[in-house]
Amino acid sequence: MSDSESPGKYRRQIGICRIVVVFLCVVIVALVIALAVVASRSTPAKTETQAQTQDCSAGDNINLDPPQVLPPFHDLTQNEIRSLKKFLYGQTDLNLAHAADILSNNSYIFTMELYIPNKKDTLNFLDKNAPAPIREAYVVIFRGDKPNPVVEEYIVGPLPNPTNKKAQKTQPFLYRPWTSPEIVGAVSVMHREINNKVSKILQESYGGKLGNCEENCLEFQMANPMSPTVTGEPKRRKQWFWLTPIVEFWSLHPLDFLVLMDLTSNKVEDYFIDKIFYGDKVFSSLDELMESYDNGTVTKTKIPFPEISKNLYSSMNRRGKLFPSEPLLPPIEYEPSGKRYSINGRHIKYMGWDFDVRMSTISGPQIFDIRYNNERIVYELSLQELAAFYSSASPAHRFSDYVDSVGLIGARVRSLVSGGDCPSHSTYLSMNHVLEGNEDPVYIDRAYCVFEHNTGKPLRRHLSSQGPSKFYEGMMDVVLTVRTIATVVNYDYIMDFIFHQNGAVEVQVISTGYILTSFSVPAADDYGFRLREHITGNLHHHMFHYKVDMDIHGTGNRFEVLNIVPTKVDNSEWSVRKDSKYSCTKMVKKVVSTEKEAALTFNFDKPNYLTFYNNNVKSSAGVPRAYRLMTKGMSKQLFEKGSGQEPSVAWARNQVAVTKYKEGERRSSSMYAIWDAEDPVVNFQKFIDDDESIKDEDQVTWVTMGIHHIPHMEDFPVTPTIGLDLSFLLIPNNYFDEDPAMGSGDAIRIQPNDQQDIDKGIKVETYGKSEPQCKPRQSSFVSEVKKNPGSIFDQPTGEVVI
């Protein structure tokens, strides 16, 4: 390079470099900006925009694990159940068989559950810092191994490491609930005998067969026991079975082939067929039936086997006129501030309420120690019994008077379905049961759902739109609901405990599920509508019984009826007519003193308020601070007192009864009630007949609800819940100085800035609430249940499920 060329060339190279550098800088800056834009779109800054994309989880305080120190009402844990079984298997006098080896003629554990401790001891612990009551279990053992078989009951404890068992009263073996060994044995006998002798009838009449089959399968379903009060045979145990096709769902496909089995013996090999019903005639043996069928002296039935498809009338597959036209989502409810209730184990707190939840394997849902602002309102609120009494021309269905504790109501609760049974934002509580045939505890992972719910109705509201005091104030009735659903064979019972923010507690039960139908015979039209050519929907009466142990400011309570009575008052001062009278009503108070007087049958001609209070606790105006019982689901039991199965449901004779608290009167029914009408194990009428004083005593109120159901075609395939909801409420009645929900931040108030000039604007008070800043949580229910189908359906065992 020459001296003359070098500087210019160098300067040109520097210029080119500068241009390149500037270009690169521009590109880098552009990339940085672009990346920033992309980043800002994919991960926004922590602003309101981000909050709207987050799950609503703030405020959750849910711990479902059993606490280290179990409270008095906490159900048996799995470890306690295993410890109890180990102890009992070690008791040589019980001669217990293990679950896999149970038979009708051996000794085995039928069930067990928490034994609720003595109320006085429990209250001393809860209120007076006394030692915690000992945890114990109630255990039921079937002693089919004894020369004279019995049912033995024990109280076993202390838990978690039991060392003793206290024998309770034994019960007749004939009264025991249905058992798997018994039902499996009965079905086995029927299969063998019927296939050997009358399989021709099943094929020709119904187009199917029993037992091993690939299609057109028939099977026997349990209908009802023939109670000794019906048969007149106090020492016999008999059970009707009815034949149905195996389809979805069999209770809507009744056939006229019914079998009455004698199951009196504790040995399956001694079971036998007592009666057969076919063609509207009764036969004493299968041989007699076959002879009559062959010689034409019985009307032969011809019912084609149902064509199994999604359009089968008994199926719950979607069909008919489909709507909406597009797959649009329904409205959903969510918790924009997270959960406003807390759960610790089975103890729940919500808006001033706190209480304990448990599940009795035998009798179902129970709530204990219900308090509002730390004041106990109810010690125990619990289901006692479900019953359904049927009417029919068919012998199996005429005597279908079901008292459902026989099937263990709590054990009939299966895992609830999110989005179907409960809102998707619910919290689910699991339960453990001890059931025959299962060595390990039977775990139900969604036995209860707990959810807060906006009812869509104002709890209160008022609009004053004129004059010098214009304002609006109101709030929605937002409640906490604790729900469980028991499926007892064909029927489903939805049971809710609802806690309102104004101090009211509501108990609601609704029936749904499949109706029980019978094969239509000429006399069937008196008992229900014909819903298909051969099907009658049978008239029946649902009955529900609850225990309400209120402790209003302590256990010494009064029951007072406020009667609303017609009267005529002097009107001469306001009328020109001489001796003028004016009709109105007045309140007449009556303190009810005895149990017989407190057994009430509702009379529409005599309206009243039922109130409960402690006479030593009154308002500043001298009025007792009371709670009112309001029943909205009453019906009358129409069966003759003392006849048939009626004594087993003596609690249904009165819509309300109030008795003195006794440890020996814990339940109004029992698991034996479907069999024991001649001599009830729990005779509720005796609770009343001793006529003790209830004035200023620890009282228990017993509430019966019910509804008569005449099935109609719209009950196909399944009975809708509309119109079938029954409820009762416990409502504050001068208990508070004003509505305690006035303290709720759920309210909204609107008023003018200037009462004289609304153009100066208005003030809207939301008490700190703002618009939702998050999105609903995404439910994982569908993916979870696909991974674990056993949480919904029982695993097949080859046994008949009862």
Question: What does this protein structure show overall?
Answer:
- This protein has 802 residues and is α+β, with helices and mostly antiparallel strands.
- The protein folds into three domains: 107 residues, Nuclear Transport Factor 2, Chain: A (Roll), CATH 3.10.450.40; 141 residues, Nuclear Transport Factor 2, Chain: A (Roll), CATH 3.10.450; 415 residues, Copper amine oxidase, catalytic domain (Beta-galactosidase, Chain A, domain 5), CATH 2.70.98.
- It is built from eleven helices and 36 strands.
- The protein has a 17-stranded antiparallel beta sheet that branches. Strands 1, 13, 14, 15, 16, 17, 18, 27, 32 and 33 form a ten-stranded mixed beta sheet that branches.
- A hairpin with a 2-residue loop joins strand 11 and strand 12.
- The N terminus is likely disordered.
Draw up the topology in text.
Elements: H1 6-42, H2 48-53, E1 61-63, H3 78-89, E2 107-115, H4 119-128, E3 136-143, E4 150-157, E5 164-167, E6 171-172, H5 180-197, H6 199-206, E7 209-210, E8 217-226, H7 228-231, E9 238-245, E10 257-262, E11 272-278, E12 281-283, H8 286-295, E13 341-344, E14 347-350, E15 353-360, E16 364-372, E17 375-390, H9 395-398, E18 401-403, E19 427-435, E20 442-464, E21 471-488, E22 491-499, E23 505-513, E24 517-519, E25 530-532, E26 535-537, E27 540-550, E28 558-570, E29 581-592, E30 608-618, E31 624-631, E32 656-660, H10 684-689, E33 699-709, E34 725-733, E35 748-752, E36 762-765, H11 781-787
Parallel strand pairs: 1-13, 7-8
Antiparallel strand pairs: 2-3, 2-19, 3-4, 4-5, 4-6, 8-9, 9-10, 10-11, 11-12, 13-14, 14-15, 15-16, 16-17, 17-18, 17-27, 19-20, 20-21, 21-22, 21-35, 22-23, 23-34, 24-26, 25-26, 27-33, 28-29, 28-30, 30-31, 31-34, 32-33, 35-36
